From TrEMBL:
One of its GO terms (biological process) is oligosaccharide catabolic process. The lineage of its organism: Bacteria, Bacillati, Actinomycetota, Actinomycetes, Kitasatosporales. Transmembrane segments: none annotated. InterPro entries: GH, GH13_cat_dom, O16G_dom_2. Keywords: Glycoprotein, Hydrolase. This is Glycoside hydrolase family 13 protein. GO terms for molecular function: alpha-amylase activity. Residues 15-409 form the Glycosyl hydrolase family 13 catalytic domain.
Amino acid sequence: MSTITPWWRSAVIYQVYIRSFADGNGDGEGDIAGLRSRLPYLKALGVDALWINPWYKSPMADGGYDVADFRAIDPLFGTLADAEQLIEDAHRHGIRIIPDIVPNHTSDQHAWFQQALAAGPGGPERDRYIFRPGRGPDGAQPPNNWVSCFGGPAWTRVPDGDWYLHLFPPQQPDLNWQHPDVHAEFESILRFWFSRGVDGFRIDVAHGLAKDPELPDLAQAQIPHPHWDRDDVHAIYRTWRKIADEYPGDRTFAAEAWTDTPDRLAAYVRPDGLHTAFNFDFLMASWDAKVLRAAIDDSLAMLSSVGAPATWVLSNHDVMRHTSRYARPNVKRWIPNVPYLPDGPADLELGTRRARAAALLMLALPGGAYIYQGDELGLPEVEDLPEAVRQDPVWERSSHTNPGRDGCRVPIPWSGDVAPFGFSPAGATAAPWLPQPPDWGSRSVEAQTGDETSMLELYRTALQLRRDNRALGDGTMTWLDTPADILAFHRDPGLVCVVNLSTETYRLPDHTTILLVSGPVEDGLLEPDQAVWLKN
């Protein structure tokens, strides 16, 4: 292991939802070829690594999170050779690669699950998953009352009478992590990709692998929970950490771990466990100084207790884009697995102003940060997708009451004034897999490049300052005394971030230079919903 500070403690990691990033072959679907062609853009943006959503072979019942083969690339995206070339090209650009890994479940088309179905009740192949007989005289009732995160029961019955567990859609059967084959398989998968040069993994549903072997009914507020955040998961990750440590270059794991309390999250990032965990309290917070400060304080206190860095994030592929969340006067707290149905139409001018300020807040906080593709363009949620084009299984399983996540997954615009806005190569006849709004030309990379007032140039400048300024990235912070609706903190040496969440202008503290501001500052007054970095 390296003796210098590991890169991941301060990294800015760019999330690539590969299907919607760049289409290299003209079929309307993003792919590895498209991503490779945009590496110069990502290098110029200033990111340290790419987190790539699943690119493995998959029937795509849930956007690739239903994996049929963890050692193969889905033909939709390219080949294993393409992935290996991408890793090499990215490293040449100084960018690290962090794929997703999905250990809680597989696709129902995975060879193991097909073997389990063929084996029949009692067959040893079924032990790699969680099959059980049903309840009731004829076994017609599910084994317990657990429900799927995407709506409906968490159990599906197969023709021979057994039921299998799926905490997500039926196409994603849960693995049985009490079985040694499962442990051995994922340890092998980690080595397969580490040997090909990946720099780490983002772990999907990191809190969900272990289940109570008794499979009891779920009671309200049950502790410990029978299938979320059980202590057994940490032994798995201690083994994974040892594997990562065998490889050079500070390989890293980032956990998607949902927990009820900060101390439960801290358990995932102890020195012998995973390296980082997503900060969902910050992402879920409303646009309110008190709420944001509490999320920041709680996260830093929890993580410092185990020596782990924070990782801040504003949007991802599972939530409404923050430009649209912030575009309502009264921003709701986002709650996982609950439809985010904001009040009233979006005021995108307001949302964009707040999103610019939020970017400066996030990038000034101690630790690392994640940027979801299109955040740097200020893309809003596409809230008016026609029902006929929606593909997220959440939409169907909620009987069309939850719009799902398609609105944050619309392919991003690169250039031009008409769709596909450079997403696909010139001359391509296939439309993007989700339709882009007709006015997105003004939000494209081409349109924003060189415009000092654009979101893209704000991000580029902020990331350059992070690289050049020792005060930013990993470290500590000190709050400054301010009115209740103002967030202001000091980063040593000599940097102050101020965010105005009030409805009045705020006079800036003494400083020598304004390094970066999200909007105009006149006569030393910071406007509402604006942020600034100061040198003092």
